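Subject: Putative Flp pilus-assembly TadG-like N-terminal domain-containing protein

B.,
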Amino acid sequence: MPEAAGKSRWILSDRHGAVALLVALALPVLMGVLGLGIDVSYWAMTRLELQRIADIAAVAGVARYGASGQAADALDTAAAVAELNGLPAGTRGGDGATTLTDSAGAYVATIAFVPPATITVTIVKEAPRLFSALFLTSGTQPVSARAVARLMPRAHGGNACILALSGMGETVLDDGASLSMPECDLRTNGVLTLGNEAAIDVANLIAGGTIGADGNNACSALTCVQHAAQKADPYADLYGALLGVPSRSVNLPPGQTMLTPPPTGVAYAWQPDGGAYTLAPGVYYINGDFRVNAGTALSGTGVTIIVNGNIAIDGTASLHLVAPATGATAGLLFASTGGLFQFTGGAATTLTGAIYAPGANLVIDGDNGAAGDCVYAVAAFVTLKGGALFADGDCAAAGMMPIHDLLGVASLVE
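Prediction pasted inline below.
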């Protein structure tokens, strides 16, 4: 009997089977936790990789915007850089102007441009659930990364108000020149020569060649950059196709002072010689040279004048003109395919808009001044002999495209 009682106590005290049962019950949970841990680690690594791609793409896109000023160009660059760094090349979508999507398999990238100069890149990958799919309904887990880059403007300059395109030419500021545009740059693809007594108040002086100071100490107070990269014509794509002047021309009726643009396919043959003229909004094509003689006054808002010859503004001529703020010629005030664009004497001007004469020598000779909000100039050569007519106010509000020059700093802000 004592022996039987001992066996009973041994059986009741044996817990080996209970432990095995507990292990059997807990094992699936432990395996699930282990599998989830492996999945979470994989997703974290995936997110780090996506973040790397997004960061690089956002910075590249906004840097490109600083160089071109075109949002669509910036979006394309960001997408291309993302693909070069590991994002599979996919199907492009979006409007291409403010948003671009790039979809390939498990990846979707969304790139957005936010004015004035911000690029946002968001990348989402449907990452597989390697182990957790055994007890979760979905076989994938969305993993995302987001980067925001912004073009931080320079303290001074970064846009040019004057650009001389010819890399073989010389931009000259003679001894009598006076140039005041403290918030923007003077840029030339060629050599820049400064007269000893030239008065210069600009943000930066940039030359594709050398800068000859000839005793002028401007570069001791300004940022002067020599041997800069050649700057492409920033207005060629924007305005180039508009420079073709119709061959058919008509004369203005004698005594007509309230002007409207010529009919489609027609240009004016016009040499205003004294008197006051008011120009209605629109594009005025001029066949031949356009000479505004002494004693002439031109005024108008929303006006673009396109000439297939030389332009000369003489003597006591008075111009009070504002370019269109919208439309195909937004921001364009004067355009010429001729070889000379000259302001002479004491021409009194109030101009807002761009002067675009890609094959001309722009000559400012005499005492000229501008009271307009903004004047840009793009020409082959630039010669300043007197008070220049350039101002650097609120050009964006006037519909003008900035002439991007020294890039801002592309910074990752998120």
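The mean pLDDT is 83.

T.
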